[in-house]
Write a structure and sequence with these properties.
Distance between the termini: 6 Å
Number of domains: 2
Largest sheet: 9 strands, antiparallel
Radius of gyration: 24 Å
Number of helices: 10
Helix content: 25-40%
Order of helices and strands: EEEHEHHEHHHEEEEHHEHEH
Length: 348
Amino acid sequence: MINNPLKNTRIEFHVLQSFPVTCLNRDDVGAPKTAQVGGSTRARVSSQAWKRPVRMALHDFGAKLAIRSKHVADYVAKACVQVGANEEQASACGEVIAASLSKETLHFFTETEAQAFAVFAQEQGFDSSKIKDKDIQKLAKKTFNPAIDGLDIALFGRMVAQAAELNVEAAASFSHAISTHKVSNEVEFFTALDDLQTDPGAAHMGSLEFNSATYYRYISLDLGQLHQTLAGQNLPEAVEAFTKALFVAVPAARQTTQSGASPWEFAKVLVRKGQRLQVPFETAIKVKDGGFLQPSINALTDYLAKKEKLAGSLFGKINEYTFGEDENFNIDDLIAALKQHAKVEVND
């Protein structure tokens, strides 16, 4: 049993990020998503819309990602072929193995797991009738090692309805990003010209909705849960990859026509024990000194300071870091500091 010295310890990211004309996350009719907060309409970006680009960005920072797909059977079948199965055997084994893990749903699995399934099928002579659900599920649990591949499973979690023992509790928690102020979606009317058209006028007309907003983002990284899932391995590297991905990732909606390429403006990053704390921005921020950013920073820092005083010893603050005010403290400095909080000795 691995001792968990980081139990109930979290890194909390309180991020402010301003975007001009954008549609970062669309609803079912193509309009920017919104939410009612404190009686006013706010711009909203769903947690899912930001989690996927963060997950994809992890690969750029050295993390080997798992595979999230409905096509488990095809992937495992290819692995079976690589260890000697013919196409018919591989297809049958892939179908049986996939059915033991998921039925018509996306399944999160690692390349190491897929290779282990193929080797197991080989040991059974690629006879799919000999492959039992409990054997596959037991093998998956034994083989799963997110410290080698599948850091994204450790961060974002995995639910396997057919085999609860394969479930992984997510270490990262994302809120829906909301604007700190009231927002009204606007409409862009546009036309397109036909290069070969001889008649005057536009060949096509249309409209798209957009907005602009200063967003508040809250992300919590449970170091204790991450330590447990990774069995204490490579925690500082995981924190580094996650923080870098969090810093660069932006939702992909309409990036070619309404580019949203704005980085973090400000972040208050807390390392704490105890209950998670998210700033609600229940009262909409009003423009001051020409914008929403500075009054949003003031409201954010004032709220956290007040809650720290009210929580007393239960606030559990270990340290805090401020990004965006001091040019001598950049993202690399922040990451270096956060990695120190993830350094622990592994005791078997």
